[in-house]
Design brief:
It is a single chain. The protein has 351 residues and is of the alpha/beta class. Helix content is 26%, strand content 22%. It has twelve helices and 13 strands. The strands form three sheets. Strands 1, 2, 3, 4, 5, 6, 7 and 8 form an eight-stranded mixed beta sheet that branches. The structure holds S-adenosylmethionine. The site of S-adenosylmethionine has 25 residues, from helix 1 and helix 4.
């Protein structure tokens, strides 16, 4: 599959316009704070953006970030501005043509930003151990529409677990399906190259994440994908695809379910650009100043990550009150966020 994908992204596609589906590239929801950062990025880099989501979580200054399947480098150069001169962003990709564009414009971005804080490496995301990256050395690993293209997703997840610092997170956008994809569709080079037929069935993704010790994957946002090309749509039939962004924290004490220990957090409102609320995921919009009941896993994600100093933490896990209400097991995509803004405001869905 590597050769098929290298050919697709190195030779078949010349720009975003050549894509046959909307699987990649949704710029409709781009936040306003991102626009000036993208305006600093070279046009040729932007023209070869093939991502499917936004991989810029909050609070990045000074962070060390790894971008898996960085392509021509759009996200690397956006993140480079967010981590600033004290941070660093490493992009890895296997396709020469994509990396050539990323590297060709490196000096342009050094001049624009006033510092040089990016590195591009050629490599396979299933073989990150060949790149001499130190274990436990990245605050955040991102990836934008790439994991679906990998023939060995378990190897990728294992490397991510190894390379993240404790408390770090894998924050990534990808394509998922509502069921397992039949092999004859996986073998179709265009469906695969367009980021569709390599997509994981969402429940299998959760299993894979848990197997790699990411015990509580959190869905941040999602959107259904429209297959606009009629030939591709006919092949796909009734399979539904979604673009989704997940965050997986490397925290050894997470449990495999959301347990209720009677804990709560208070957000201070101290993260730049987030004075009113903090979004952990699709089900946790934590308003500034409010006492916000959380399960044990959410408590730990906030307390043992870079977010800790922006929260007050109430309680500990010495008592147990059962399962946290609404810890569900149904298709997580496709509906508006059920915003939990306080105790018992709605179903109290946790994850
Ligand atoms: C859909 S594009 C996304 C590129 C980039 N993330 C962006 O947002 O523009 C997929 C990229 O992942 C790279 N890629 C796919 N599978 C890979 C693998 N196994 N190892 C390294 N790179 C891979 C491809 O070369 C291509 O540049």
């Amino acid at each position: 599959m590597h050769e098929v994908v290298q050919d697709y992204y190195g030779k078949q596609l010349q720009s975003t316009e050549d894509l046959k589906t909307s699987a990649c590239c949704d710029i409709s929801n781009m936040p306003s704070w991102l626009k000036p950062l993208l305006a600093n990025i070279h046009d040729e880099v932007l023209s070869r953006y093939y991502g499917c989501g936004l991989v810029c979580p909050a609070l990045l200054e000074g962070c060390r970030i790894l971008d898996l399947g960085c392509g021509s480098g759009r996200d690397v150069y956006a993140l480079a501005q967010l981590v600033g001169r004290t941070g660093h962003v490493v992009g890895v990709d296997m396709t020469d043509e994509q990396l050539a564009i990323a590297k060709q414009h490196q000096n342009y971005h050094v001049d624009k930003f006033g510092y040089d804080n990016v590195t591009f490496l050629k490599g396979y995301i299933e073989k990150l151990d060949e790149l001499n990256l130190d274990p436990n050395s990245f605050d955040i690993i991102v990836s934008n529409c790439v994991i679906n293209l990998s023939p060995d997703k378990a190897a990728v997840m294992a490397s991510v677990q190894r390379l993240l610092k404790p408390g770090g997170e894998f924050y990534f956008s990808d394509v998922y399906a509502d069921r397992r994809i039949p092999q004859h569709l996986v073998n179709d080079p265009v469906l695969y190259g367009e980021c569709l037929s390599g997509a994981l069935y969402w429940k299998d993704f959760e299993r894979l994440a848990r197997h790699a010790d990411f015990l509580d994957p959190r869905l941040v946002e999602d959107r259904p994908l429209e297959i606009t090309d009629s030939l591709l749509a006919a092949k796909i039939g009734d399979i539904q695809f979604f673009s989704a962004t997940y965050r997986l924290f490397k925290i050894a004490t997470l449990e495999d379910a959301c347990e209720d220990h009677g804990q709560a957090v208070i957000y201070y409102g101290t993260i730049d650009q987030l004075p009113h609320h903090f979004n952990l995921d699709k089900h946790h919009t934590i308003e500034t100043g409010r006492v916000f009941p959380v399960c044990g896993n959410t408590f730990r994600m906030l307390k043992e990550s870079r977010f800790a100093k922006h929260f007050d933490f109430i309680g500990d896990d010495s008592r147990h009150y059962g399962i946290f209400a609404g810890c569900g097991d149904i298709l997580p995509f496709g509906h508006q966020a059920d915003i939990v803004s306080g105790p018992f405001v709605n179903s109290g869905s946790c994850c």
